[in-house]
């Protein structure tokens, strides 16, 4: 779970850097390629008006591109002049005018190639020497982000693999499943799904009739997850009144309303670094659903009567006997919250 969070953050860093770069350098296409150590570069991020799906995982062989290999050998950013003979970097997937601006900058870590940054514009003379120097400096920072992304991906994959291997070793007769009795093929599929989803960080929705053991399944997922040492906090949404629902979820400050004699932490805070189980989420008051959606998107809540944001780290497992797709169509459940 931690590895997956780092992976997302590192990937997002590359995108933010390219977005910020466009505020200073007028490009129409910015591409970050990763070097695989075997004379090949592969696109991992493309941004700008000229970026299309064709760039996804597009690969360039340095053996076929001696002009790019020469730039990389010099370890310096290079602006191709109109008179300079070279093949367009993405000639096989993008048609650019003959007289266009093309800037490439190797991404290096201690003289070791980790990738390549390219900037293109359909107009000529868009990049001057000062821009070349700036991009060369920026490339050093991008190299670090690229290495971090690669290391984070390896860590996330290793963590997920170890968790899956651990769960495969757990038999249905273990402590986790000892109270979940059943021998049918369908029930075994349920237990297999529990093992599979437990190792991930994604939210889980359990659907089934009342009394079928959805909370017990939620507890099993929690006990098999990386958050097993954290709290498991259940909340029955069907038992919430519209007036107290927000306080139960997000907590309240002392004096926030009549009867609020002391500060109270909500279920999100109580479940920090653990699992929050929202039972019968289909019965959650409609006016509270946008606030729940905002909390899930931003990872931040505000207690009732408070002004200070409170950050939380929880995994959501929700359950309902309601057909949420039908509830969305009926207007009693928000579509954006359903897909969240």
Automatic annotation (TrEMBL):
PROSITE patterns documented for this protein: SIGMA54_INTERACT_1 (PS00675), SIGMA54_INTERACT_4 (PS50045)
Top-level taxon in the UniProt lineage: Bacteria
InterPro entries linked: AAA+_ATPase, GAF, GAF-like_dom_sf, P-loop_NTPase, Sigma_54_int, Sigma_54_int_dom_ATP-bd_1
Pfam families: GAF_2 (PF13185), Sigma54_activat (PF00158)
CDD domains found in the cross-reference section: AAA
Record bears the keyword Transport: no
Location of the Sigma-54 factor interaction domain: 180-340
UniProt keyword list: Activator, ATP-binding, DNA-binding, Nucleotide-binding, Transcription, Transcription regulation
GO biological process, one term: regulation of DNA-templated transcription
A GO term, aspect molecular function: DNA binding
Protein name: GAF domain-containing protein
Species of provenance: Gracilinema caldarium
